[in-house]
Design brief:
The strands form two sheets. Strands 1, 2, 3, 4, 5, 6, 7 and 8 form an eight-stranded parallel beta sheet that branches. This protein is of the alpha/beta class and about 350 residues long. Helices cover about 35% and strands about 30% of the residues. Helix 6 crosses helix 8 and helix 9 crosses helix 10. Strand 11 and strand 12 form a beta hairpin. The structure holds guanosine-5'-diphosphate and magnesium ion. Guanosine-5'-diphosphate (GDP) binds next to helix 1.
């Protein structure tokens, strides 16, 4: 039976990066996996990244898995056609109450189709320090703490760049690095252990408070074709653009939750992202030395603590400043709407 591994955690925690690293590790042993990505909007950097990594990837867009449970199931069932032994699923980084709205219904109604792995929640140590500080943003801290409270497994990510770790009240976290592979095999063994129980915790969520917290974030997905006057490598377009966006957001006193850019050209692609303002060495992946190209297909996914209109203005400014003809193909910006899950269990299945 196919194992469904859900991996949650706040925006920028390292979910997609871990899924791709874990899927690569499985591929190394001849185990086939697929993934389902998720976002409140359409046009996802994560889905493109999973496809570039060579995995069957599908997405649920327009709302979280909880609010689109039937769509989530339909996509998981469709992926079964590729006979994956594992399907990884990544819920939106602002989402919580996943145990009650996804894990329990899966266990109750789909036990003959999927084995459900323990629910893993990833934590970026730097984000944890911010969220556990006394002056933390109350809305984001509410989401962050609840996400951890419903996990079966909590894991700190980015171990390659963190020496000391903050204390997480009430949990014994694992330690992972998708970059170096540290802890990835151990985590996979835990997730794939046929005897491991999944969805053992349930939150008591006040949906008014939850909706208010999510709506304090602004969302922007932007896709466009950039025809440069002078050919550039994708890295030479993406790096300065990311820096400019970060600079404009910082000037406007807008805290970044996650800013991702993927640039695809006929010579190769680059994906880069930052998870906080002024992140000194943004992580980039793809074809760093791809030859210069004039035509770039650019996709920007930005989540920040702001009204969406401000994000829209800033992205319009930064892309407008490129020495290029820019044709916008898709643009949406919004505050996430109130979550209304299809199922919500008050007891463990
Ligand atoms: N140094 C380091 N960076 C990582 C690691 N995992 C993820 N990142 C970076 O953290 C950022 C957010 O990762 P992503 O997987 O997109 O997070 P998601 O929003 O939770 O899916 C990206 O820039 C990644 O390259 C890791 O193990 N080590
Ligand atoms: Mg992701």
């Amino acid at each position: 039976m196919t194992t469904l591994i859900l991996v949650g955690g706040f925006l920028g925690a390292g979910k997609t990066t871990l899924l791709i690293a874990a899927a690569n590790a499985l591929r190394g042993r001849g185990v086939r996996s697929a993934m389902i990505l998720n976002d409140q909007g359409a046009e996802l950097v994560d889905t493109l990244l999973a496809s570039h990594a060579g995995f069957e990837a599908d997405e649920v867009t327009g709302a979280c898995f909880c609010c689109r449970f039937s769509d989530f199931i339909a996509r998981a069932e469709r992926l079964l056609a590729h006979e994956p032994q594992v399907i990884f699923a990544e819920p939106v980084g602002s989402c919580m109450d996943i145990s009650a709205t996804i894990l329990q219904p899966l266990k109750e109604y789909y036990r003959d189709r999927f084995r459900v792995a323990p629910f893993t929640v990833l934590v970026d140590p730097e984000r944890a320090r911010l969220m556990l500080a006394p002056d933390a943003d109350p809305h984001l801290a509410y989401l962050f703490r609840n996400q951890i409270a419903e996990a079966d497994i909590v894991a700190f990510t980015k171990a390659d760049r963190e020496e000391t770790l903050p204390e997480l009240p009430g949990v014994v976290p694992r330690r992972l690095s998708a970059r170096t592979g540290q802890g990835v095999e151990a985590w996979l063994s835990e997730a794939l252990d046929p005897d491991a129980a999944a969805g053992l915790r349930l939150l008591d969520v006040d949906y008014e408070r939850y909706a208010e917290a999510e709506a304090s974030l602004g969302w922007l997905n932007w896709r466009g074709v950039v025809e440069l006057k002078r050919a550039l490598r994708p890295a030479a377009l993406t790096g300065p653009l990311l820096e400019r966006l970060d600079g404009l957001l910082t000037e406007a006193a807008i805290p970044i939750a996650h800013l991702k850019v993927i640039d695809q050209t006929r010579t190769g692609y680059i994906k880069a992202s930052v998870c906080r303002n002024g992140e000194t060495a943004p992580e980039a992946e793809g074809d760093l030395f791809a030859a210069p190209a004039r035509k770039h297909n650019l996709l920007i996914n930005l989540r920040a603590k702001s009204r969406a209109e401000a994000l829209e203005r800033i992205v319009a400014q930064a892309t407008g400043e490129l020495a290029a003809r820019v044709t916008v193909a898709h643009r949406e910006s919004f505050q996430p709407g109130r979550p209304t899950p299809e199922h919500r269990f008050r007891r463990l299945a």
